[in-house]
Every structure is written in C-alpha cells, then in structure tokens.
C-alpha cells in the first residue's frame, strides 16, 4: 500500500502519515521502527531530546531500504539553540542517524523568554538548508506570535509546524494561521495519547462514544478514525507505538472516507484543554537537558 504525500511549501513531498518514536526507549526503537518500515511507513520522526536517533538510523539501515526511500525528520533541542551550537546540533544528529543529510530539521520549541536565541537557531537551519544539508526546515509548538516574529526576522517560511492536535484539543486558530502561511500542520499525539480530564473525569479519545460510533460505521478502530480525520483535513499525522499490531492498525487508514458530518462530529469534541506543556512556559532553566555528542 502506497502512502499519499503532502507537498511542502518548497516543493518537497512528505508522506501523509508518519511514524513517531517519542518516549520509545532506545532498546525498543530498532524493533519498532523496523516494524513500521516493514508495514509501509516511509517517514520516521525523531528528535535529539528523545535519545533514540542512533537507533532510528540503525533500524533504517537494517531495513534494506535505500536512504532516498525513507523521509527522516528530527528536532533541535532548546539547549542547542544559537547559531553555532545549532549548526553543531545538525552534526550531532546526522552522526547519530548515520546520514549525510536530513530531510526535515525543525526547532523543537520556541524559547519565548530568549527569542533572539530562537532566531539564531533558525538562521542556522536556513544555512543548512541553503547548503543542501537539509531538504526542508520548520518548527514545533510555535504559536502565532512566535511565527510572526520568526518570519519577520528570517528568510525561509517554516515548511511545517509540529503541534499538539487531536479531537480533544484542536488548536483551531493556530491551524488556520499555519494554513494561511503555507505551513503544513504536523499532529503530534494525533490520537490523544495524553490522559485528559474531560466532563469531570479522566478520559481518553479511544473510549469516546462519538468516535466509537463513527468507527463502527466504517468497521474501523477509533484510532484509525482519528488518523483519517487528520489527513482529510490536510494535516500530517504522526502516531507512535511499539506494538507491531498497533503499528499496522494505524497504517491502514487509506481505504475509507469520513463524511462531512462525521468530520464535524469529531471537531465538536474539542475541549480547548492542552495536554502538553504551555509553549509560553518553555525555558532552558526548566526544560534544559544536555544533548550528548555520541
């Protein structure tokens, strides 16, 4: 089964469905990524802060696929922001991945209290882009004010903004801003993997009755419905799992179509409550971790 592509604002194509390795322990990463590639995923999303770039690279090599057949995305962590340190962050990431170039390199967070450092980091990404070391550059968890200042002070509009999006937290206004700027929305936690406090109790999108009813109509799982919801609305989804059965289930989402009413019903589940950290609260003092050289 071939995966349809989205075309980024510089013409580079990225699969509509990716595979993520956030919180996947290094000793499980090779097997998980290997299962994903065998299933048919061709976009692997990792990050310096995940601590498993080396294992992602090893899994790709073991797969027997050519380098050109796998779209690799990784992220620079905030402790490596700054022009020279971000250039070196590329060297660290490429070395761990075992590649000469990276398909998509993005900034993992904005640093609102040190935005000059964020700008310098992005300018380093621009140099890497112009030098041909990365095919596209972007950001993650950037809110509209961050995007406004970034675009005003740099020359390359981000190709993607990887953000928390799922039925319980849609970020409608941010989605619109990204669309208007020509930035592809990438959804992390696309099926609401974070535990949420909803209607007076903890709940999960996987147990939501509205999503379950739609899933029953199509003979699909709730996770498959949510992934389809993202892609039909023009977002790339990046689910994660270490279980081969779930990895395969998440991939089989291209053989059914949600109706307009079903899309609207999922939209209506939005609570406006974020599960991840507030982008404005990100600081090096609070979230700083050293990214190793090896």
Automatic annotation (TrEMBL):
The keyword tRNA-binding does not apply. Keywords: NADP, Oxidoreductase. Substrate binds at residue 108. InterPro entries: AKR, Aldo/ket_reductase_CS, NAD(P)_OxRdtase_dom_sf, NADP_OxRdtase_dom. SUPFAM superfamilies: NAD(P)-linked oxidoreductase. The active site is at 50 (proton donor). PROSITE patterns: ALDOKETO_REDUCTASE_1, ALDOKETO_REDUCTASE_2. One of its GO terms (molecular function) is oxidoreductase activity, acting on the CH-OH group of donors, NAD or NADP as acceptor. The keyword Transferase does not apply. Gene3D superfamilies: NADP-dependent oxidoreductase domain. The record marks 75 as: Lowers pKa of active site Tyr. PANTHER family: 2,5-DIKETO-D-GLUCONIC ACID REDUCTASE (PTHR43827), NADP-DEPENDENT OXIDOREDUCTASE DOMAIN-CONTAINING PROTEIN (PTHR43827:SF3). Belongs to the aldo/keto reductase family. This is Oxidoreductase. It comes from Mycolicibacterium goodii (Mycobacterium goodii). The lineage of its organism: Bacteria, Bacillati, Actinomycetota, Actinomycetes, Mycobacteriales.
């Amino acid at each position: 089964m071939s995966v349809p592509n989205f075309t980024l604002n510089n013409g580079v194509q990225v699969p509509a469905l990716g595979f993520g390795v956030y919180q996947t322990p290094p000793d499980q990463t090779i097997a998980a990524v290997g299962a994903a590639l065998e299933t048919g995923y061709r976009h692997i999303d990792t990050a310096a802060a995940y601590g498993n770039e080396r294992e992602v690279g090893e899994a790709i090599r073991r797969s027997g696929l050519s380098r050109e057949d796998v779209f690799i995305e990784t992220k620079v962590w905030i402790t490596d922001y700054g022009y020279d340190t971000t250039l070196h962050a590329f060297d660290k990431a490429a070395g761990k991945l075992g590649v000469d170039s990276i398909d998509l390199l993005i900034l993992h967070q904005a640093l609102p209290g040190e935005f000059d450092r964020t700008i310098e980091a992005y300018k380093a990404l621009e140099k890497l882009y112009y030098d041909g070391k990365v095919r596209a550059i972007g950001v993650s968890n950037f809110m509209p004010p961050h995007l406004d200042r970034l675009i005003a002070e740099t020359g390359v509009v981000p190709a993607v903004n990887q953000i928390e999006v799922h039925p319980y937290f849609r970020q409608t206004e941010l989605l619109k801003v990204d669309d208007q700027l020509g930035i592809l929305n990438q959804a992390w936690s696309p099926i609401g993997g974070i535990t949420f406090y909803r209607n007076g109790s903890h709940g999960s999108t996987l147990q939501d009755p509205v999503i379950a009813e739609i899933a029953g109509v199509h003979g699909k799982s709730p996770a498959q419905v949510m992934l389809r919801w993202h892609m039909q609305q023009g977002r790339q989804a990046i689910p994660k799992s270490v279980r081969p059965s779930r990895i395969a289930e998440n991939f089989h989402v291209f053989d059914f179509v949600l109706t307009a009413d079903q899309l609207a019903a999922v939209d209506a589940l939005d609570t406006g409550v974020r599960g991840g950290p507030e982008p404005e609260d990100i600081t090096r003092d609070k979230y700083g971790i050293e990214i190793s050289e090896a």
